[in-house]
Design brief:
- It is a single chain.
- This protein is an alpha+beta fold.
- It has a domain at 2-40.
- The protein has three helices and two strands, in the order αααββ.
- The protein has a two-stranded antiparallel ribbon.
- The N and C termini lie far apart (48 Å).
Length: 99
């Protein structure tokens, strides 16, 4: 409890490593069991919500997923299948798409 008062923003991994360093060989439980103890005693902080980047509320045409259909699309030659990803970066003037 003292650790949490001293480090209110510390995460589970950091607290686990701190306990291991502080108690040394006496600290014989594993990481997952330690997380379970923290969780059951209400010592976990809540996860932050991640920003939702996909807006599905639109009237545009929605293309079918060609890779996860049945039968699965299996490329038979080089260059038959191309995939892409849109990456955006936060800048001072707003969001910029990386291409």
């Amino acid at each position: 409890m003292e650790l949490l008062k001293d480090m209110p923003r510390a995460g589970m991994r950091e607290l686990y490593e701190l306990c291991r360093r502080r108690f040394g060989r006496k600290f014989i439980i594993g990481r997952d069991q330690c997380y379970g103890l923290f969780r059951s005693n209400g010592l976990c902080r809540r996860n932050r919500k991640r920003p939702r980047t996909t807006c599905s509320n639109h009237n545009y045409y929605i293309y079918e997923d060609l890779l996860n259909t049945t039968p699965k699309l299996r490329p038979t030659r080089f260059g038959q299948l191309c995939v892409a990803d849109i990456t955006y970066v936060a800048t001072e003037s707003g969001w910029a798409y990386l291409s």
